[in-house]
Amino acid sequence: MRPDRLNPLFIETASLKGVGPGLARPLEKLSLTRVRDLAYHLPDRFVQRRAVSDLDEASVGENIVVALTPVEYRSSAGRGPFRVLASDGPGNICAVTYFGRNTGWAKKTLPLGEKKWVAGRLDQFGQMLQIVHPDHVSEASGALLGALCEPVYALSEGLTQGRVAALVEQAIGHAPALPEWIEPGLFDKMQWPAWRDALELAHKGEHVSARDRLAYDELLANSLALMLVRNANRAKTGTPLRGDGSLRAKLNLPFGLTGAQKRTIAEIEADLQQAAPMLRLLQGDVGSGKTVVALEAMLVAVEAGTQAALLAPTEILARQHFETLSKMLSGTGVNIALLTGRDKGRARESILMGLVDGSIQICVGTHAIFQDTVSYKNLALVVIDEQHRFGVGQRLMLTQKGRRTPHCLAMTATPIPRTLTLAQYGEMDVSRLDEMPPGRQPIDTRVVAVERMDDVVSALSRHLETGQQAYWVCPMVRELETEDIAAAEARFAELELRFGDTVVLVHGQLRPEVKDAAMERFARGDAKLLVATTVIEVGVDVPNATLMVIEQAERFGLAQLHQLRGRVGRGDGKSTCLLLRGSELSETARKRLALMRETQDGFRIAEEDLELRGGGELLGTRQSGDTPFRVASLEQIQRLLPLAHDDARLLIERDGGLTRERGEAARLLLYLFERDWGVQLLRGG
Ligand code: ADP
Ligand code: MG
């Protein structure tokens, strides 16, 4: 239960003064449903104005506050703007211009002959000075001169800056003073303001230390919650698994394991022997050989007389895993099954039976393998491929399936920087496959201007003539999904015209059967060219595909580009990746693509991408998608997360139950940032 003293912060915004039904939707669109959300709706930036005694003192482009007296109204023909010509003290004329507004309103705001204080940006229109849609017009100077620095908030349709500012002020008025949860030594050293002061200051101006403090709070809450989960997990009982190696000895692998694979397998084996359930993250770049590591781990479970499950994010990938694993397992006598949402009827029934009676030892599938209707005889290990697709909550829920908590191995190919690994996964144990299997050819990566499309298609044509296959990737950005799909379909039509029916198309809006059929044709080699949106991002192993063309490469995240590129370079042949770029590129975009050309080290790409995107901004950008944070920017995460992490550990070491003074304060913090699952674990024991 949330502590009572936080209740004022969890009042619904709909019940604030001045919020009618009309504002409910715009507020909801910005996720501002509670007073707390409003208080943390920090400005994107600030407008800094200067008070000037007359227009001679101001420069064009400057935000000013100046006293003006309207002298003439000027309407323009048709849909043109309405202008109020106004004079400053010395007699300079400036137009106050309104587009598409009702002129009656403008006349009422600026009656002829009455001096008003006007705040806005001074522009030049032809020979005339003008202020378009002033931010404020007021009779008295006081209010305007008192707010020369004004916040600019993210808005949604139906909201204005003034409206949001007023609501934020109300929200902060509701905020109670809260006890300090930051470690006193750190708090003094950083000279941060107290929580409530920090909130106020952060809305008033570019107050770095206030902003840092609020970001730090969020990071601390996150680290603390993840650490509590980790501790609770350590306190649970799993099944200690000790394999005798008999099945692993029968595995017929066409290669020897790399040093990194051997080391990782040993780490996992050691975890599995413990009674505390394993919670380990296996990070390894695309192609680093995670599958065989997962298989060895699952065989330990089978050798120990239990079952293992492998969860894949998509049907395609589940199928591919199933096929790869089945091949490797032939001759071991291990019974493996594939279970997806599409299996129905008798086939499904027989798999369910096999899982209950234990005759199926390894189950591969999509989230269908954890539906309520699926029970296991003794599931002791869950492997989750591509962890980032699933939230922490879902993972925890899944692992509650067995009578005892199963060991959990999460695998990800998303090379995220170390700081973000910590933020995303907390204190999970991490194994890194930092060594590629031998014999990999480097991928020749080139950045090509889109104007050279004809050359690219000719190169593709020559490539296909040699009998090798290729991918053609079109971008897919969620907000514009239909447009993107239309573009991909258009490109497919063009390429099909040129290369005939050896071209197949795969995108997210196709029916699964159609998608699979296309993928299968490509995997068999019947289809030579696969046009796709990013559905091929994960998995998919076709060694004969050695060319990849990526359209509008600048629209992709680097981690994503890196994963896509990993689809080629899988065989012995030389592979090429062509990054097509648009004609207008920002400096950052140019650097990011250059980085892709320069290196194939996913971890280096991730680190430098973070630098390129995160650096150089005072207020920072809240990069929601990438991180679980709404207050902390990427830059703040890098700078402050290590501190928060250490602080969280210290707190838990000293007061693991969060019952002493600072611990109590920290509980408030967990609720404040909705990381209270951490607290609930404390109580549940
Ligand atoms: P990922 O980490 O991307 O899941 P996979 O497990 O799919 O990588 O492995 C990529 C390819 O490398 C597969 O074709 C696999 O058979 C091969 N492979 C894995 N380990 C080795 C190894 N030690 N030596 C040679 N090839 C290997
Ligand atoms: Mg894989």
What does this structure look like?
The protein folds into 4 domains: 1-40 and 164-174, no CATH class; 46-152, OB fold (Dihydrolipoamide Acetyltransferase, E2P) (Beta Barrel), CATH 2.40.50; 248-433, Rossmann fold (3-Layer(aba) Sandwich); 443-599, 3-Layer(aba) Sandwich (Rossmann fold), CATH 3.40.50.300. By secondary structure, it is an alpha/beta fold. The strands form 4 sheets. Strands 12-13-11-14-15-10-16 form a 7-stranded parallel sheet, sandwiched between helices. A 6-stranded parallel sheet has the order 17-22-21-18-20-19, sandwiched between helices. Bound molecules: adenosine-5'-diphosphate and magnesium ion. Magnesium ion binds next to helix 11.
Could you tell me the radius of gyration in angstroms? 30 Å
Q: Strand pairing plus helix content: what structural class?
A: alpha/beta
What ranges have pLDDT less than 50 throughout 5 or more consecutive residues? 615-625
Instruction: Summarize the biggest pleated sheet.
Output: 7 strands, parallel
What brief labels describe this structure?
685 residues; alpha/beta; OB fold (Dihydrolipoamide Acetyltransferase, E2P); Rossmann fold; 4 domains; seven-stranded parallel sheet; six-stranded parallel sheet; 24 helices; binds adenosine-5'-diphosphate; binds magnesium ion
